[in-house]
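Sample entry (146 residues):
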Amino acid sequence: MLKMEGLWRTAAGLNPKPEDYEGVDFWLAPERAGWLTKQGEYIKTWRRRWFVLKRGKLFWFKNSFVTHDSKPRGVIPVGACLTVKGAEDVLNKQFAFELSTNRDTMYFIADSEKEKEEWINSIGRSIVQHSRSVTDSEVVDYDSKR
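Predicted structure, serialized as tokens:
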């Protein structure tokens, strides 16, 4: 499992490694793709990036022409995330939303309310599909041990 520092180092777009996106055809039939404005992790500037959601990973690129040879500027394994929700009140910016782990939060701005809601719904579905589920063997029922 990824360490959170590594997740957010990657999420900040700092040198994503090929193994972070190996085996994901991000250039073919994404679950969702489009422009979002992303706040940098360390330098809090806002940058417009092309985002692609595919197979539990949220990739971003400098432009929308994504091919097999494209190198993502960053990638977030959404299964490691806990929540995705609106953040207009937090940022005081229209169409803002946030993606959070138990330690950090990243902020994004969509181009419209409809786009924001569609991204939140798509990422939320992906979190549910790709988060690590508790298996029956990991469930501890203290009541049954009395």
